[in-house]
Design a protein that fits this description.
CATH architecture of the largest domain: 3-Layer(aba) Sandwich
Largest sheet: 12 strands, mixed
CATH topology of the largest domain: Rossmann fold
Number of domains: 3
Shape: globular
Number of helices: 11
CATH class of the largest domain: Alpha Beta
Strand content: 15-25%
Length: 588
Amino acid sequence: MTAELVRGQNHPLSQIRLEIRISARTPVLAGATLGDEHGTVPGAQWVAHPGVPVLPGIEVSRQAAEDHRLAVDLAAVPESVHRLSVLLALPAVQGGGPPRFGAVAAPRTAVIAPDGTEIARFTLTGLDAESAVVALELYRRRDAWKVRAVGQGYAGGLAALFADQGLPEADELATRVEQAAGRVDAPAAPQPRETSATAAPRAVSETPEAQPPPPVAGDAAGWSMEERLYNQVWGMFEDLARCTAAYRSAVDFAESRLEKELDQALADPRTRLGTVGDAAREAARSRHTQLVDRARAVLDRDLAQLAAEAEVVEPALPPACARWDSPVWHGHRVPDEPPMALRLGDLRLPESASLRIPMLVRLPLERPLWIDSGPVTEPCGVVAESATSRRLALETAVSLAVRLLAVHPAGQFSVRVVDPAGAGADALLPLTRAGALEGRPAIGAADVAEVMGRLAHHVDLAQMAVRGGAAEALSHDAGSAQQLLIVNDFPYGFDDRAVTRLRYLADEGPAVGVHLLLVADRADAESYGPLLDPLWRSLIRLTPVPDDHLADPWVGHAWTYEPMPVPPGSGILRQVLTEVADARTKRE
């Protein structure tokens, strides 16, 4: 059955030899870029286009045309390539205005198997001022390939698209590609747009605006609803990253164009002064404003679509991925199976402050977590006292610990606490009152040494059992259950040996089910110098208040991370911990 993809949706590929068909009903040039795991294209030699139509694993058309058939052999793609992006661009028109996809029929793409079976299709609706677009993306995931419907357009054309993919000399490359494709004659009349892959041609008098289909929760590939929602959230994250990158690229292009035109106006002494010079500068600023306004309109359209999707996805998320104020928590019961993912908070960008994307990580946790208890700035702009920031950080850690306990089957997850100074007693009350901790919190240097030694020994035993193929033979005490160690006020109470064991747990623990949640101010550990730099780099840094410190390696945006606070006055933590305790009692 053919998968009818929507923007951001992906679909697994069972074939490695494919044909990508493109139908545009107007001449377009087709190309492809080969990028690394971050989507970065290292140079022009990794771009297939009419001037260089053949690269390892991909062959594209040699000229602009209405229909294209691109040959793909994923087995021939270099191992360093993780993303193959299929791009379309409108060539320059002889005797016409600037090309834009909003004035032509929506291009249609299809991924075809060697036997002619259509695997997936995607229609690029919703484009307007863009003259270049990334249509599809074939990408590696755990030694398998998938196709994603992208539809990311660029009002700045191929130059903006190439710059967004990290290509040096993007302007020069775009010029070479366009020259290789050649120009086309202006059409006698504009073609009507389509609203879907199966829409019949419409009369020119009808409205050309294509309305995207209403969003649906779980509208992504996956074997279960949980997996489909997880993939959909990541698709939303990538969509927001792409449309914001396109907007920023368009604004940068407008700024550079304005600067260039102003320099040209000032360079000619004959037009530097007087009404001619004023008119040239005013025209340049007007063009700049038009470009920025168009880019913002496209961004606002994309943000509105993502906001509509978020409104249907958020209520559908399971407890592990839902906010604490979600109704799903009030009917939650301890599950029989652990979830596939956990929500750590929300992510947003400055251009879309009201749109928040859930920050999801797969379980079991592959990296340790760090709640930064350093100085924080409150909403009023005042820097909070050290005691306040430390309390907020530990409360955030407790909230995450409760969530992990609640979403794992009874007896399959435990929490230990190291609180050398005993400063976290108040914040830890939800856990200690409910008897949810494995033993009492370790207080003082002796307790710290004992706990760190015992956990390091546990990791040693578990690693030997796993390497020997006898993991199931471990006793419950040494066991196979997942464990979370919360360390408060690090490095207080830690000697050099305990610090070494902490680093060992951070590096080796996740593979055998021992996870670390560090609550610390990095400045407190400055005396260790660069010795602890590898530890800090291995941690996922979270903050108890919104902070724009998370940079994705994909397009390099600085994302603002927002924790998930428990609603004021809510008893949800107590309710959830009571349920966890009851489930544990029944199991025993």
